[in-house]
Amino acid sequence: MNKEMNQPLRERLLMDSDWKFALGHASDIKRDFDYWKGKPFAKQAEGRGAIHPDFDDSDWREVCLPHDWAVELDFEHSSDNDIDYHGYKPIGRPNPATSIGWYRKPFSVSPDDKGKRLSIEFDGIFRDSQIWLNGYYLGRHESGYTSFRFDITDCVSFDGPNVLVVRADASQVEGWFYEGAGIYRHVWLVKTNPMHVAHWGTYVVSEVGDGFAELTLHTTIVNEDDLGNTGTIESAIYDADGHCVATVQSETQPIGAWKEQEFIQRVRVEQPRLWDLDSPHLYRLVTTVREGEAPTDVYETSFGVRSIHFDPDLGFFLNGRHVVIQGVCCHQDHAGVGAALPDRLQYYRIEKLKEFGVNAYRTSHHPPTPELLEACDRLGMLVMDEHRQVGVGEEIANQLRSLVRRDRNHPSIILWSIGNEEGGIQDTEAGARAAKTMKRIVHELDPTRLVSYGGNNGGQSAGINGVVDVRGWNYWKIGANLDEYHKEHPQTPMIGSEEASTLCTRGIYENDEQRGYVSSYDENFPGWGSGSEEWMNYYEKRPYLAGAFVWTGFDYRGEPLPYRWPCISSQFGIMDTCGFPKDNYYYYQSWWTDQTVLHLFPHWNWTGKEGQDIDVRCFSNCEEVELFLNGRSIGRKQMPHLGHLSWMVPYEPGVLLARGYRDGQEIASVTKETAGAPSELRLLPDRIAINADGEDVSCIAVQIVDDLGRVVPIADNEVVFTVSGPGVLIGVGNGNPSSHEPDKYIEPGAVWRRKAFNGLCMAIIQSTQQEGVLCITAESTGLAAAKVTIDTKACTLRPSVQQVEAANLIF
Ligand code: GAL
């Protein structure tokens, strides 16, 4: 506390609630709230229309952030519109009526805040946003993926109401996949004293020794005041149990008026608890800034102590231990919510990936949401953190700087990627020069990590590939002899920045172009891709490859491959858009984890195919598997390493049973039974107690089951959801790549519903700020309904809220 004023030294307040939203228009001035006529850039606070603080937005819709208006739009099939990339949501230049979004938020600050520095931080807006406060133009930010801030001290009103206005223009695309639209990440109001830790102003570097770690703490203090001053910083390191394990105090240094000063401190931590995949221990650096004796700021930085190393012959090492990169690439959207993920969904997704042995995540192809990195830090997931585009113009170079400055304290990050498949320049001398500049920018800000790039240009070693530290291969199959390459570049570590691109639809076992489904037998992939077994075998034989990132962990909206309409999403995922496993999930789980895995597929509901051969397959890490149909042995086989087993079995309804053996002993068994008609619904929430913070969510999986409780693998019944108590539905999904049903029902009083797809669908429910018990009911015509209750409980502050008080901390 600042004792005189009884005020916290620093506040970082979430600004996610009470926004008003309306679609504007990219070509019709009236429908764009007189944006042009209001001369938004001519004179401060004279702009008219929605920019003006007095504008009447009473007929705009109330929304909470994160918000993605693209996911709310109907799907549209238009052949000349190129909206397939966006999953057939009418976003982009040809859709002026649905590509501009306006947001307005009233808020107030206290007269007691006079004398403080105030800023607004945006974690990410898609895209090209212009921002006004009380009619003052604050500025423009084009990237849809980088985080940015504005100092609002000079235009905020301390005594009256304030109105923050954002116009987001998603007419232009940045990628070739679904990108969402609007303020799809958090917004924060930050209050500090004039002398404070600068924005992203700390950088902790750790060097691990034998039984100790040497930390170098770089801390930038800024003095935003007309008077020069002197400053001292005290740095304290806390372990995850709250024990202070080291402290260090700086010399007092002069900090001129409106100047910055970097402090560099070294401190030793004895017997450090290393950040690792199974024990992702995080330390907190608490930095206290003082003017004389008086504290002016307290700032927290989460970091980890660990060592990383890429060896050109042996691959990757974490804390001195060889770790094969078992990675996935992911885009950022999810079923039901599009690009606007509540924080908990980031954790849900990382947990799901870890379940089948993933240990690394590539943030393809853009800077991620900060909470995704928090989830990776906390759950133990390595990250290749990717910049959107190769380039060196000021705008792009600044995006790169902001990415590294924002993210460099995350222990999960092991590599920076400067871009992906820049076909126009990757082979050229100019591409090499750009990559060199980008590498320099990265290393100036973070000398501790190497730089990579996703190149899809085969054995090309000139251009961008010749510059980056770690050679990233997008697809070994693209005309290259990697062994030769390795021989010719013995100093270059190599990694599969993208592999597989296998296409499967969950629960489908033959291609059906009309309905947009592909077989889950892992037989479909584009020319550059390969089946899971093929690439896994290739990599395993080449220990100089550090491992690879599979394209992709989850299905994602947009880039509908291999089929366009009616498909609206891709089918590359090892899981579907909801996180329901496809069969390949168990292939990877067999070879990427130590768990005993025994998975049989396909399902055993083939009415009409009696007597016909069905290809029954098994993914497992058992040494041998024996298959039985209705009690009769169909054969016992040895499981090939990194392979699968297969039996042709004439169909008859009943029970398929597999028994798995190791050292001749049965260690696992699994059945696939012919399910009867759909009879009832079953609800399986991923969490039955959530925080009553208006943000936390539970993902409720819905199964359609027969009267013996067996999932009906071909059921597509429509399920209607109702909620009572302190919770709201925020999205529904089913993983069907061709479903044109809404993910959200935004009209007041609408009935939330979703069809099952191959027996499953999902509803995502969010808490309100009230404690209590919420109840979600699922109903479907002719089936027994199901109900589940979820406790919503008062919680401590969410992890990323930094509202710390000096008095409670140190010294
Ligand atoms: C890669 C590309 C990805 C995705 C993928 C589909 O070449 O980097 O973004 O398009 O192909 O296979």
UniProtKB/TrEMBL annotation:
Please name the source species.
Paenibacillus mangrovi
Q: Which GO terms describe its biological process?
A: carbohydrate metabolic process
Identify the keywords attached in UniProt to this record, alphabetized. Answer: Glycosidase, Hydrolase
Q: What is this protein called?
A: DUF4982 domain-containing protein
Q: Does the keyword Zinc apply?
A: no
Give GO terms: molecular function aspect only: hydrolase activity, hydrolyzing O-glycosyl compounds
Asked if Transferase is a keyword of the record, the answer is: no
The organism's superkingdom is given as Bacteria
Q: Which residues form the Glycosyl hydrolases family 2 sugar binding domain?
A: 61-192
Q: Which family does it belong to?
A: Belongs to the glycosyl hydrolase 2 family.
Q: Where is the DUF4982 domain?
A: 611-668
Matches recorded under NCBIfam families: GalA (NF041462)
Query: Glycoside hydrolase family 2 immunoglobulin-like beta-sandwich domain: from which residue to which, for each copy?
Result: 203-306
Q: Where do the Glycoside hydrolase family domain residues begin and end?
A: 681-789
Q: Which residues form the Glycoside hydrolase family 2 catalytic domain?
A: 316-393, 398-564
